[in-house]
Each structure stands twice: as structure tokens, then as C-alpha cells.
Design a protein that fits this description.
Length: about 90
């Protein structure tokens, strides 16, 4: 999937049961709309840490971060095309 500056990452922790040698067990993993998925984890918190790490990895440089997340419908880790083309306000 091609990446662009307008691509939005919307990750979530997904989970399901899997058969293991010890029987059925819950397996958690971070999954993102960009196609990145984390490794299988035994704990939700660990998968959630993978998710947080992914967002830190994809966060744009400060000048491309949105300065009006409410108005532009973006998240802190999104590059905002509306804001990126503007000079900083201060
Ligand atoms: Zn992503
Ligand atoms: Zn913006």
C-alpha cells in the first residue's frame, strides 16, 4: 500500500482465541490501517505498547503535525496537509 502524507494511521489492538499446546488462549496484536501488524502477544497491554510504538514511529516532523486537530479531524500522529503548507503561527 503506497504511503502518502495524507495517509491516516488508525491502529487498534485486535484479539482472538488461538489453539496452543496449552489449549485455547487469547492472542492480542496491534493492527493498523496502514497494514502494519505487531507480533502476537499474550497480553493486551503488550500489544497496546506495540501500537503506541508504531504511532511514535510514524509521527510526522513537528512542522507537519496538525495545529487544529479538532477542526481538521486529525490525530496527534497524523501529518496534516492543511497545516503542513502553512507557516507556524508563532
Ligand atoms: Zn500505521
Ligand atoms: Zn491541521
Amino acid at each position: 500500500m503506497p504511503l502518502s502524507t495524507t495517509f491516516r494511521h488508525r491502529p487498534e489492538v485486535v484479539y482472538r482465541t488461538e489453539e496452543t499446546s496449552a489449549g485455547a488462549a487469547w492472542v492480542y496484536r496491534a493492527a493498523c490501517t496502514c497494514g502494519e501488524t505487531g507480533p502476537r502477544r499474550a497480553r493486551w497491554a503488550t500489544a497496546n505498547a506495540d501500537l503506541t510504538a508504531h504511532l511514535a514511529e510514524v509521527a510526522p516532523p513537528a512542522e507537519e503535525q496538525c495545529r487544529d486537530q479538532h477542526g481538521h479531524g486529525t490525530q496527534p500522529w497524523d501529518a496534516c496537509p492543511l497545516c503542513a503548507g502553512q507557516d507556524a503561527l508563532f
